[in-house]
Design goal:
- The chain is mostly beta strands.
- It is built from 1 helix and 6 strands; from the N terminus they run ββββββα.
- A 6-stranded mixed sheet has the order 1-5-6-4-3-2.
- A hairpin with a 2-residue loop joins strand 5 (70-84) and strand 6.
């Protein structure tokens, strides 16, 4: 559903939790680096949800992330389509605009400021 006149639409995702596994790092034909990882997020007393995250041109430290290391990700939801046997498949992930280690207070503050600025734009 698109925003109508006078409404502001925001696609904002903030996830924080431990990495489920080490990130997968790929270098595309263009030379662009791409990291994919999953972040386990608590679901209010229920089982944790594993959220897939995509990081374009990730900082070098992302290569060294280990399972269980906590991160904070600010980004937007993205639905991607791909060909698979039997037709077209899709997946939803968080495309990171900013990723930081949960213990890196400076990066986390920057992430939260960015998220707050987007929310304040709603009025």
């Amino acid at each position: 559903m698109e925003a109508s006149a006078g409404e502001t639409a925001v696609n904002l995702s903030v996830v924080c939790g431990p990495c489920s596994s080490a990130p997968e790092i790929r270098v595309l034909e263009s030379g662009t680096r791409l990291a994919t990882l999953s972040v386990r997020c608590p679901a209010g007393g229920e089982r944790a949800t594993s959220v897939p995250v995509t990081v374009w041109d990730p900082p070098a430290w992302v290569d060294a992330l280990e399972p269980g290391e906590s991160v904070v990700v600010v980004g937007r939801l993205r639905r991607r389509f791909y060909q698979r046997a039997g037709g077209v498949g899709s997946r939803v992930d968080v495309e990171a605009e900013l990723i930081g280690r949960a213990r890196d207070r400076r990066r986390i503050d920057a992430a939260l400021r960015r998220a707050l600025a987007l929310l304040e734009a709603l009025g």
